[in-house]
Amino acid sequence: MPPQTMDPRNGSTVTDFILVGFEQSSPSTRAFLFALFLALYSLAMAMNGLIIFITWTDPRLNSPMYFFLGHLSFLDVCFITTTIPQMLIHLLVKNHTVSLASCMAQMYLVFCMGVAECILLAFMAYDRYVAICHPLSYAQIMSQQVCLRLVGTAWFFGLINGIFLEYTSFRNPFCKDNHIENFFCEAPIVIALSCGDLLFSMKIFFADAIVVLLSPMVLIVISYARILASILSRASSSGRGKTFSTCASHLTVVIFLYTSAMFSYMNPRSTHGPDKDKPFSLLYTIITPMCNPIIYSIRNKEMKGAMVRALGRTSLAQAEPA
Question: G-protein coupled receptors family 1 profile domain spans which residues (predicted)?
Answer without folding.
Answer: 47-296
